[in-house]
Amino acid sequence: MEEREISIKELINVVWRGKIIIVILAVAFLLVGTIGAVVMEKRSSSVSTVLSLTWQGVTEGIYPNGTRFDYNTAFEAYVIEKALEEEGIESLTTNQIRNSFQLIPIVPSSVTLLIQEGLENGEQISYYPTDFKIVLDNAALDLSVDESRDLINEMIDQFRIDFENRYIQQSVILNYTGTDFELYDYLDIHKVLETQIDLIESVMITKGKLNPGFVSPTLGIGFADILVRTSLVSQLEIEKIESRTATYLLTKDKDYLITNYTHQNDIKQLELDKTLANVINAQLMIDNYTGSVTTIIIPGMDPSIEIDTYYNTLIDNLVNLQMNVNELENDIIYNELQIDRLNGDDPLFTVTPAKQAEEIAKLEAAIARSEIELSSIIEDSNTMLVEYDTYTTSSVIKPLMTPEYESSVSTLMYTGIGLILGAGIGVVVVLFKHDWE
Asked: What is the 3-class SS of 167-181, one letter each residue?
């Protein structure tokens, strides 16, 4: 066979003359590469996000109630079913979602090294992750990327709702101001209003200690602001209701009030008798106590200090009992005085029926104002409590990023390979055709 030599210039000219063939083959292979990449991408794509869990006990591998937290079963079937229902996806089942859904713990490399070193040294180190990667295989489920993102977000929301229902105590303040006060005497109404304020303040103080900086997104106020409002109502209205009722002996039923004071005295007299007996016993224990002295020597001080802690405890107990006796005796005297005034046996009590009627009008106006203000405070408090529960739950179960599309197939890479391969084959074809001719 005769061998022919070809110069670089001639080679370039040959390739240039065959550029149409090269372009056609390059474009054809580019399209094949692109189509192949798209097909493969649909079969291997997924959507993922990172979920952070920070409830109390998660670092020990437990739920707030002490039960074991297993991330493999964290998303219960009914949580997934509710998410599918909310998203209107009827073509998929709970099992299909579970088979295409992964919750992968994220363990820092430093922790992994620490565990390995511990095992090498014969130590067992436990680590419970708090961050997890959620992966949903949307290709296997035949879901679009947007549908998969919405489904992941809804599953997280339903998981948060389920967690809130199971482990977070829902606080709601009951409103007793709606009671029909026409059925109660003024002293009883005062007790209801006072109890209502105590209830509000108890809840607000508890929540304020947990998160003093919380501010309601809709109301723009915090727990301390509610406490200021209850304090004002207590000082401006409730205390005046009590003092006006007691000072002017305001009542809807005099006989009932006399019976009430009498009943209170009977109870207080029983308490007084028990307390007096305890005083006698406490005094006997002090009189018969032989003593047990503890000597404390402080360097540089002379003389030393001698104390008897148990004797001091006996003395404190006796003093407290005597104070209780004085308080009970004063209460009994006060109630007896009120009974005498109601019966008209106290010449010093000179309040006329006309004055009492005038004060009753003021009293009922104060009760009405208290009802309105406390109802408003309760409504705002319950709004805050709902928002605080939502805030608490969202902070313990929180996605750290929006769901992102992932694919193991690079469309750009496959397109580039197709283009280069097509162009290369085109050059070979052109050169072969030239040589053949």
From this structure: HCCCCCCCCCCCCCH
